[in-house]
Amino acid sequence: MSTDAPWRVDCIVGARPNFVKIAPIMRAFRDDGRFRLRLIHTGQHYDIAMNEVFFRELAIPAPEVNLEVGSGSSTEQTARIMLGLEGVLTADRPDMLVVVGDVNSTMAAALVAAKLLIPVTHVEAGLRSGDRTMPEEINRLVTDRLSDLLLTTESEAAANLLREGVTADRIAFVGNVMIDTLFASLPRARPATETMSAHGASGEFIQTAAGGFGFVTLHRPSNVDDARVLGGLLAALADISRLIPLVFAVHPRTRATIDTNGLDGIISATGILATPPLGYLQSVGLMREARLVVTDSGGVQEETTALGVPCITVRESTERPITVSEGTNVLVGNSPGRLRSAVDELLATGGKRGRVPEMWDGKAAHRIVAHIASYLAGRRAAQPIA
Ligand code: UD1
Q: What whole-number distance in Å separates Cα of residue 312 and Cα of residue 36?
């Protein structure tokens, strides 16, 4: 092989948060010019609202390959991705596979590459919630165990990896690529009132929201799969919406539990505007203008910290501790009473102020590409010339 042939890198995406992370990475690879890229979509998320709109808004090139695995249990998704991806990687073998985040697609792809002896880079390595009931925690553990290059977003991540036996030479702190996308997209973020009226908000809702509103997202299995837990949280939100109007972007997983258990009545005729999943630019626009955010999403915890917007996280733990130690995040678990008192306190005090963590500066993607290039250059140098 010629020593200056482009490096062949395959990037894997599957679910909504992956799209936000891969956009600046693909751009940085292209800017660098030394890589031949292939984007492989597993098809884990497929609805327009969960998928296409992100490709369009973030100018992600159309994937060369779509495995179209669709919905199913975690095991079904993982198995289908593995079967599909093995054929793709065997037929056309890359020098490196890049996976991002902690979704089922991330872990399944890392497993296939590891079995085919293709080096894996994990972007967002080393995050740990310590809660193995979360499917994402299992995905993080397995992906990191199998990855060759582990790129981290915050300092505690390296400590977690070292504790688990990863050697320091495989770990690099690059910052947070999700914040690259956030900062680059702010000028195009949609005004909150525009999004509210696009989703049928009344004039009265919009007028009240002008005095401050909350933005809500919930989709973790532990919060939304059990109708009693979700019902309790919805009742707390209905209660809170009497103090401050709420825009609630309802994830398909959450919508399914609401519909099959007739929970819609709890939030209808309250100060809650329930919308379908929103596009990225609408979501960021709402977050930026919100007085408070209630969420269980990992990405939203980070985005609110970067934006300086107070965030109440409906979980007992977070794999992103810097959003609490330095950022605007507080953890309240999923008891409706604790959620309600956290909102009361926030409204009384204005909420937590924080600072933007180190290297959440909009330039993580270029550092990621530089580390991958130097890793691949080292491997090429070590290989005998054929
Ligand atoms: C997945 C990720 C989670 C991430 C979230 C963002 C895992 C284990 N979880 O969770 O980390 O925060 O994406 O959204 O990978 N569905 C649709 N349309 C779609 C996709 C899914 O209606 O385009 C429905 C399916 O019926 C499915 C449910 O949503 O039953 C859940 O989808 P799934 O991909 O299994 O997990 P998420 O909850 O979205």
A: 42
